[in-house]
């Protein structure tokens, strides 16, 4: 049985994940070595070593998640423990958190810092998938089926929004919405849900107007203005985006060569984080950009395929939810770097420097790989075994993987 399980893993998905992580590690070193010395007075390989440690921890977490049966998350005690832990972390941020980039989003544990809102993304996917998979018989009943989990989703988004981290709150909401759309609801229920959302927006619009000074802060407005007219204030609010354009443009097709970026010499602030793609474009050209985009696209599309093929509604929602999380984050990051959308500070999945982001993405991909493994195992071996045994024993065999 152990050999059959190993054969059932999606090694193409694992391979692409490892390639992106290793490529990201190389680019973190290349993009951060000047910043580490000139800006922070550290050794040139400081961020590389930190990211290497992050990668080792994240890979161990990936292996654990890939081996842990995803169906166990449906067990009440496991799900409640997970959600209580995430909520406790999100609330504790407001009391014990550290402020980074104008948001109180981090908890300093001494040896490392964690960002609870990153873990909330995966927790929301697991929670909504678990709850809605149990409500399939009455999924189109708004009161019994859809409403209770929506309240929880709104609560999580509100806590993250108060950090304030509008970008992450919006990502969590979009991920939750996609999981709901894949939960099995029909178009009539979706239209009712959309109508309720519009009505809620109308009700809260006066509150938004009164609190506009706290919501539309100077920092957020500067990001929007920089997106609309970056060259009007190229040395001010448009500085980061303009230099990103210069990096992408100077890279061309072939790039300047690995380690030869000019914009990382202090022109792009902390280029190892959310603007790392600009350095990739400058140093490796269109080939480096294509490698990252195609790798991320493969993971997203493969995840959606796994979700569509999965016979378990819980597995389907988890697979599509994780795929959408990676796809949304990649789009927001690449859109910000290229000027398609305002800059939000969202890291590029598996590539950007950062421990919490890489850890959560690795955990998420591990869960996705586990869903794929169970699905392939049941297709190859369970179905074959059912066909080989007498019909009177088939009912017992069908319950082999049920939890």
From TrEMBL:
<dbReference type="GO" id="GO:0008360">
    <property type="term" value="P:regulation of cell shape"/>
</dbReference>
<dbReference type="GO" id="GO:0009252">
    <property type="term" value="P:peptidoglycan biosynthetic process"/>
</dbReference>
<comment type="function">
    <text>Peptidoglycan polymerase that is essential for cell division.</text>
</comment>
<keyword id="KW-0133">Cell shape</keyword>
<keyword id="KW-0573">Peptidoglycan synthesis</keyword>
<dbReference type="GO" id="GO:0015648">
    <property type="term" value="F:lipid-linked peptidoglycan transporter activity"/>
</dbReference>
<keyword id="KW-1133">Transmembrane helix</keyword>
<protein>
    <recommendedName>
        <fullName>Probable peptidoglycan glycosyltransferase FtsW</fullName>
        <ecNumber>2.4.99.28</ecNumber>
    </recommendedName>
</protein>
<keyword id="KW-0812">Transmembrane</keyword>
<dbReference type="GO" id="GO:0051301">
    <property type="term" value="P:cell division"/>
</dbReference>
<dbReference type="GO" id="GO:0008955">
    <property type="term" value="F:peptidoglycan glycosyltransferase activity"/>
</dbReference>
<keyword id="KW-0808">Transferase</keyword>
<keyword id="KW-0132">Cell division</keyword>
<dbReference type="InterPro" id="IPR001182">
    <property type="entry name" value="FtsW/RodA"/>
</dbReference>
<dbReference type="InterPro" id="IPR018365">
    <property type="entry name" value="Cell_cycle_FtsW-rel_CS"/>
</dbReference>
<dbReference type="GO" id="GO:0005886">
    <property type="term" value="C:plasma membrane"/>
</dbReference>
<keyword id="KW-0131">Cell cycle</keyword>
<keyword id="KW-0472">Membrane</keyword>
<comment type="similarity">
    <text>Belongs to the SEDS family. FtsW subfamily.</text>
</comment>
<dbReference type="GO" id="GO:0032153">
    <property type="term" value="C:cell division site"/>
</dbReference>
<dbReference type="Pfam" id="PF01098">
    <property type="entry name" value="FTSW_RODA_SPOVE"/>
</dbReference>
<keyword id="KW-0328">Glycosyltransferase</keyword>
